[in-house]
């Protein structure tokens, strides 16, 4: 993600205005925390970050409802394998995405496109299977972590 947190929030607010969505202070706060996490963040980590800011207890259902809103409106994606959430790199434009997730640092790369689903459903075993929802999450080592590993090996 290259855009700053402020830019992303401004974009979300413009989108909410345009579509008549209620980006309430709570939803905005959840979105901001997801943006700032820069890697998948779970509901309980969000609660831990929110409670000191709000000075009151935050219920999981409250956070899950806010996350549902953000996911439905394309601001945030759910990472199923981690039960966590990342900010979308292209909020407001409906798209399918694939995710590359680093096992070590948690860095998550979003790659947009329908090609994976299309090529799978076009393959002979699938017989034109109609895809309704796709979850493509690849885990491994990001290039930064690979570099770190290489540096460590050289140092030893
Ligand atoms: Zn996205
Ligand atoms: Zn990494």
From TrEMBL:
GO terms for biological process, alphabetical: negative regulation of DNA-templated transcription; regulation of secondary metabolite biosynthetic process
Localisation: Cytoplasm
GO molecular function: DNA-binding transcription factor activity; transcription cis-regulatory region binding; zinc ion binding
Cofactor note: Binds 1 zinc ion per subunit.
Keywords from the UniProt entry: Cytoplasm, DNA-binding, Iron, Metal-binding, Repressor, Transcription, Transcription regulation, Zinc
Signal peptide: none
Binding site for Zn(2+): 102, 105, 142, 145
Cofactor: Zn(2+)
GO cellular component term, pick one: cytosol
Pfam families, A to Z: FUR (PF01475)
Family under the similarity heading: Belongs to the Fur family.
Oligomer status and interactors: Homodimer.
Name of the protein: Ferric uptake regulation protein
Species of the source: Candidatus Burkholderia verschuerenii
Gene name tied to this protein: fur
